[in-house]
Amino acid sequence: MMNIDTGSTNVYADLGMPDAEEMLIKAQLAAKIGEIIKRRRLTQTKAAELMGIPQPKVSALLRGQFRGISEAKMLEAIARLGRDVKIVIGPSRRRSSPGHVELEMA
User: Fold this and answer.
1) Where's the HigA2-like helix-turn-helix domain (predicted)?
2) Nearest in space to 44 (alpha carbons), one of 36, 75, 68
3) In whole angstroms, how far apart are CA 57 and each of 54, 70, 83?
4) What are the pLDDT digits (tens) for 69-86?
5) Residue 51: which pLDDT band, with cuts at 50, 70 and 90?
6) Domains of the chain, CATH where assigned
């Protein structure tokens, strides 16, 4: 019989990666960038020009290879693609535990 374990909402945490929260955010940002590029029917070259990122990095980003690009640069790229970026800081859901980073997209 096969045993199936239910994972969390973060595959990177399930894999035991030390930077799991950051990797999840980057994956979500990369997916959003890909969605915007597709919706606008941009070539990677044009997207790279608009985003201020070399085309090979755009290609890598769209293939899920985003370790070489910061979250800040990805947020800037989204803004340069014509989207507003809003960062909200609020209280932790539980006072006894540290806060966490969550990405919400409209």
Assistant:
1) 11-89
2) 36
3) 5, 12, 20
4) 999 999 999 999 999 999
5) very high
6) 17-80 (1.10.260.40)
